[in-house]
Amino acid sequence: MKVSVILPCYNGARYLSECLESVLAQTMTDLEVIVIDDGSKDKSAEIAEKYARADSRIQVLKQENRGVSAARNVGLDHASGEWVTFVDCDDRLPPDALEVLLASASADVVTAAHETFDETGKTEVVWPQSRWWAGKREKMQRAAALRLIEGDSVLNIMCGKLIRRTLIEREHLRLMEGVSMSEDALFNLEAVLAGNGICYVNRVVYQYRTHAQSATGRQTGSIFDAHRPWLCAMRDMLERRGLMEYYYAPFFDSAVLHLYKDGGVRYVQKAYMEKVEPMMDLKNPDTKKMTAYGRLLLRLRHRYAAVYPFFWVLQTAGRKLNEAAAALRADRERPRQ
Questions:
Q1: Could you tell me what percentage of the chain is helix, strand and coil, using 3-state DSSP and rounding each to the nearest 5?
Q2: Which of 210, 23, 26, 215 shows the shortest CA–CA distance to 121?
Q3: pLDDT band at residue 336 using 50, 70 and 90 as cut-offs
Q4: Predicted confidence band at 317 (pLDDT cuts at 50, 70, 90)?
Q5: Is the alpha carbon torsion for 30, 114, 39, 14 positive or negative?
Q6: Mean pLDDT to the nearest integer, 168-195
Q7: Following CA atoms 300, 132, 150, 203 in sequence, which dihedral angle do they give, to the nearest 10 degrees?
């Protein structure tokens, strides 16, 4: 089955050859590589075109600088494979990455572990932070959606996944331009919610380069304000799909958690009414679709700041227990190299 590899590039000349070599060296050879030069000012386009002349599987598209989401969307517009995967121009694929993913493609979304590396040679394998991948298909799908709303180091990133292209086109899935933080997680969440399941491969299929120029390294200022466009876009998407009531509680908790990261319990009490409460207003909610916890939060939302310390104690205890359980499982569930 053909895989479309979508590879956006902006001023990536330093690493682009290494990245393309890793893609072209895949043991699964039925692929197309769509390089989108996002208005680079270096020799990125020249390097990509050189590879395209040598390998007919590569096509190079150019656009004015509009950002990585716009570049990925252009790639989606031109993709023709049964499956789509995304690769960033400074990262690498292990030689059998696509073969491993395809061998386990029993759902519309396939994901796996990844590895980070830096210029010093330091590497670290990143695996799921909870057992969302355990259980039957429907349970796994809901658990994955919850983790995407809350945040998960494996599920959030755009790369290291296969997504069935018929799902992408049927649901008109595209990245939201203008959302510069967690846009990956938003796209992945909608794919999981709209698709026919998700499956997990306990193998490293992606090598993610960490350096000072990475997006995560540039984040400054308020965590909540940086993630506000993502939170608003996620709320709009859940409402559009008729799922806001069902996921009201985890969305609520996620918004509050991002506020908490800015200044702790006192800051939540100070800023909640201004920043979070307006997001939580539902017009004519169908409370039958909500969990008991969701209904409680809906009733308490005007007074939530006052009672937040109680919820904080419960949530902190829950996170600590989950972290302890994950630490106990770490060696047993470590991804195979």
A1: 50, 15, 35
A2: 210
A3: low
A4: confident
A5: negative
A6: 92
A7: 180
Q: What is the pLDDT of residues 222-254, one digit of tens each?
A: 999 999 999 999 999 999 999 999 999 999 999
> CA-to-CA distance for 209 and 59, rounded, in angstroms?
24
Q: What does 40-98 look like in DSSP terms, one character per residue? A: -SSSHHHHHHHHHHH-TTEEEEEE-S--HHHHHHHHHHH--SSEEEE--TT-B--TTHH
- Which H or E run includes 251? helix 248-275
DSSP state of 295: H
**Could you give phi then psi for residue 92, rounded to 5 degrees?**
-140, 155
Q: How many CB atoms lie within 10 A of CB 300?
A: 15
Say if residues 67 and 181 touch (Cβ distance below 8 Å): no
147: left (phi over 0), alpha (psi -120 to 50) or beta: alpha
Quick check: 217 pLDDT over 50? no
Tell me the CA end-to-end span of the chain in Å, nearest whole number: 24
The predicted pLDDT at position 334 comes to 63
Helical packing angle, 292-300 and 248-275, nearest 10°: 10
Q: Residue 325: pLDDT above 70?
A: no
Q: Which residues contact 275 (CB under 8 A, 6 or more apart)?
A: 224, 228, 259
Contacts of 310 (CB under 8 A, 6+ apart): none
Predicted structure pTM score: 0.91
Q: Give the span between the Cα atoms of 79 and 328, in whole angstroms.
A: 42
Q: What would the pLDDT profile of 117-171 be if each residue is shown by its tens digit? A: 988 878 888 887 777 777 788 888 998 999 999 887 788 899 999 999 999 999 9
Q: Are 116 and 210 in contact (CB under 8 A)?
A: yes
The CA dihedral of 310, 316, 318, 323, to the nearest 10 degrees, is 180
Residue 45 has which token pair? 């386009």
* Amino acid type, 179: V
